[in-house]
Write a structure and sequence with these properties.
The chain has helices at about 5-30, 35-40, 40-50, 50-65, 70-105. With about 110 residues, the chain is mainly α.
């Protein structure tokens, strides 16, 4: 992987991971995710939500490329990031499929 691409992916993954961490910490202190979503500008929320799929791809690409192989704490952070974003995308896909099924049954 080219060094410029590697650093771009690292910065994007770190930014999205930090945003997710801030979101969930705020949710813990503000009364849940709905309370946080109600306080965030819709544009920022859409960008955060839509960034999950590219964050999944970038974290998996970085993991497969062996990034941070010599630094165990950063390697674990990358694994946790890849796991979180992958699970978030899977949950959203199944949530959308369930909502579409329910709406289909109602019509």
């Amino acid at each position: 992987m080219a060094p410029g691409l590697r650093w771009t992916l690292i910065c994007f993954t770190a930014l999205m991971s930090l945003a997710a961490l801030v979101f969930w910490v705020a949710a813990a202190f503000m009364g849940g995710p709905r309370a946080v979503i109600a306080q965030i500008d819709i544009t920022a929320m859409v960008l955060f939500t839509m960034g999950h799929l590219p964050a999944t791809a970038s974290s998996v690409l970085l993991w497969r490329a062996g990034t941070f192989a010599d630094n165990k704490p950063l390697r674990w952070a990358l694994l946790v990031s890849a796991t979180y974003f992958t699970l978030a995308c899977i949950v959203s896909v199944f949530g959308n499929a369930l909502a579409a099924s329910i709406l289909g049954m109602l019509t």
